[in-house]
Design a protein that fits this description.
Elements: H1 8-36, H2 46-61, H3 64-87, H4 104-113, H5 119-137, H6 157-165, H7 167-170, H8 174-196
Length: 199
C-alpha cells in the first residue's frame, strides 16, 4: 500500500493559499448576502431550511452552479412540505399529480393558484426554473439552425461551460445568474414561508 504523500503542513499551506486567493470574492459575496438578508425570523420546514442555508453557503464560497440548484431545491421543498401537510403524504394536488410526484413547475402553479405566491412571484420562480437552473441541470447538445449555423439562443453544454470559465466570451456568467438566484432566495423565500406558515 502506497504511503500518503500529503503531509499535514503541506495540506495546511494549500488551504491557506486557497483562502488567500478567494478571500476578496468571499468578502464581497458576504457583503451582498448581508445587504439583502432579512432580519426577521420565519417559520420553515426543517429540510427546506437546510437547503436554504446550504444555498447561502454555496454563494458565500463561490460554488455558483450549486447556489442555483440549491436555491431551486429550497423553494421546491418549501412548497412540497406544505402540500405534504395540506394534502397528506400520498395526497394529490389540484393538477392531479401526487405531491411526491409533482415537479417544481407544478408546485409553483399550485402555490400560485392557492394564493401562496402572486403571479409575479410565480413568474420569478418559473424564470429561476426554466432559464437559470434548467440549462445547468438539463445540459443540451449544440443545436444548429436550418442554415447550418449554431443556434446561440438555445443553451448548450459549451455555452454553459463558457459562463463558468470565460464569461466575457458569451456575455453572461454563472456568477451573475447565481447572484440573481441568491437574491431571489433571501428576499422571497422568507416572505413565502411566512405566508405558508400563516404569519
Amino acid at each position: 500500500m502506497k504511503e500518503n504523500q500529503w503531509k499535514e503542513s503541506k495540506i495546511t499551506r494549500l488551504i491557506q493559499q486557497g483562502d488567500e486567493r478567494s478571500y476578496s470574492g468571499r468578502k464581497e459575496r458576504l457583503k451582498i448576502l448581508l445587504s439583502i438578508e432579512p432580519q426577521e425570523s420565519f417559520p420553515v420546514p426543517a429540510l427546506a431550511y437546510e437547503y436554504y442555508e446550504e444555498a447561502r453557503l454555496c454563494w458565500y464560497v463561490g460554488a455558483f452552479v450549486a447556489t442555483i440548484v440549491m436555491t431551486q431545491l429550497s423553494f421546491e421543498e418549501l412548497f412540497r412540505s406544505h402540500y405534504r401537510v395540506a394534502k397528506g403524504v400520498n395526497g394529490k394536488l389540484n393538477c392531479g399529480k401526487r405531491v411526491e410526484d409533482a415537479g417544481f413547475r407544478e408546485l409553483i402553479e399550485e402555490a400560485k393558484n392557492d394564493g401562496w405566491i402572486s403571479k409575479e412571484e410565480a413568474e420569478l420562480l418559473h424564470n429561476l426554473r426554466g432559464n437559470v437552473r434548467n440549462p445547468y441541470v438539463h445540459v443540451k447538445d449544440i443545436k444548429t439552425k436550418d442554415n447550418g449555423k449554431i443556434d446561440t439562443t438555445v443553451p448548450n453544454f459549451f455555452t454553459q461551460y463558457l459562463k463558468i470559465v470565460a464569461p466575457e466570451i458569451v456575455g453572461s456568467s454563472v456568477e451573475k445568474e447565481s447572484r440573481e438566484a441568491i437574491n431571489l432566495l433571501v428576499t422571497l423565500f422568507p416572505v413565502v414561508s411566512r405566508r405558508v406558515g400563516g404569519i
